[in-house]
Specification:
Oligomer: single chain
Radius of gyration: 20 Å
CATH class: Alpha Beta
Distance between the termini: 62 Å
Order of helices and strands: HEHEEHEHEEE
Number of domains: 1
Structural class: alpha+beta
Strand order of the largest sheet: 4-1-3-2-5
Length: 174
């Protein structure tokens, strides 16, 4: 039997454990987001100039409300991720889908023209990892936007499909 020098494995340091745990958690969250809805559109919305996080979020929610109330008229699930682009301005990645309780499909032309504040990239969702990419960001959430008809409202309780509030813009200190 050949006897050689055995290589001792050093236990991983704390930084390695944190990095690998964060990577695993990002993957699990990304998979959860990916499978939560049958996402139909993926968009990246970039601001032309520097704006505060509160303004960015207000403009994004305005886009969502206009899309739902003026063009789609159905409940839409929205996963959004906000961060800074390489040049320092904020941009928002979003996944959109008609809520599974309703029928329909979102198309690129429905969203086109609703983002006058900078560049936009809008495409049909193809399952290429956008949810996993978005899960890396520290500022993200998933919400349902209500078109506002009274048929979906419960007295004093709001919408059946969109019961929770969106985060307040002040929570987005970027």
């Amino acid at each position: 039997m050949k006897q050689g020098r055995q290589r001792l494995r050093r236990p991983p340091d704390d930084d390695h454990l944190v990095r690998s745990s964060r990577h695993y958690l990002t993957h699990v969250v990304g998979e959860w987001i990916h499978n939560l809805y049958s996402w139909q559109l993926f968009a990246t919305l970039t601001f032309a100039t520097e704006v505060p996080g509160t303004v960015a979020f207000d403009r994004f929610t305005s886009l969502c409300r206009r899309l739902i109330r003026e063009r789609v008229r159905r409940h839409v699930a929205v996963a959004w991720f906000i961060d800074r682009q390489r040049r320092g301005v904020l941009h928002i990645h979003t996944l959109l889908a008609i809520h599974p309780m309703e029928e329909g499909c979102l198309t690129v032309p429905q969203l086109d023209g609703l983002w006058p504040w900078g560049d936009r990239l809008i495409e049909q969702f193809n399952g290429d990892g956008a949810a996993y990419y978005g899960a890396r960001h520290s500022h993200w959430d998933i919400n349902v936007v209500c078109p506002g008809p009274t048929a979906c409202r419960r007295p004093g309780k709001g919408c059946l499909l969109a019961p929770g509030p969106w985060p307040t813009p002040s929570a987005l200190e970027l």
